[in-house]
Amino acid sequence: LRTSPAMRAMVAETSLEPRQLILPMFVAEGLREPRPISSMPGVVQHTLDTLRKAAVEAADAGLAGVMLFGIPLHKDARGSGALDPDGVLTAAIKAVREEVGDECLVMSDVCLDEFTDHGHCGVLTASGAVDNDATVEIYAQMAALHAAVGSHVVGPSGMMDGQVGAIREALDASGASDVAILAYSVKYAS
After folding, report:
1. What values do phi and psi take at 12, rounded to 5?
2. Which residues of 89-121 are buried (b: 16+ CB within 10 A; e: fewer)?
């Protein structure tokens, strides 16, 4: 007995729709045109202008949201660009939020790996180990900054102990109690 596509659709246990998807988007400071990411075919590091256009396309396609990652020109050991109110990631959040408003969730990565010159997700101690507590403090400040410039959701990805609690406290203290936290442990399990 052959079943029709309509019958299979009616009894399917799982459905996948654009409203359930989040598009990761990368924006690199100083670009004049998008730069392909060789390890991710079809994905680019955007300029602010192409990021805006791609965010509108994502919203028009009915996607749930976009997750923004910033790549600054200048990096240092403390990842200070992550807290720059005029930095690449904060500028990207502002730009995308201006374009899509509340039609598409604007999500932002909360991590220091792209902002540090050593590439680790946090600041390092004198012995070269990641300083969990100092990193969590920066994450909390970073999340509050992202909320202030328009993120609907912040996504801590550094896996530091206590990061979600510290970020929630910082968001609540800054009046951003409606900003959600989507930690990577949730992302991997979803």
Report:
1. -65, 135
2. bbbbbbbbbebbeeebbbbbbbbbbbbbeeebb
The residue assigned the tokens 């500028």 is: 91
120 Cα distance to chain centroid = 17
163: left (phi over 0), alpha (psi -120 to 50) or beta: alpha
Chain centroid to CA 93: how far? 9
The pLDDT tens digits along the chain (190 residues) read 577 888 888 888 888 899 999 999 999 999 999 999 999 999 999 999 999 999 999 999 999 999 999 999 999 999 999 999 999 999 999 999 999 999 999 999 999 999 999 999 999 999 999 999 999 999 999 999 999 999 999 999 998 999 999 999 999 999 999 999 998 765 555 5
Instruction: Give the separation between CA 147 and CA 93, rounded to whole angstroms.
Output: 9
pTM of the model: 0.90
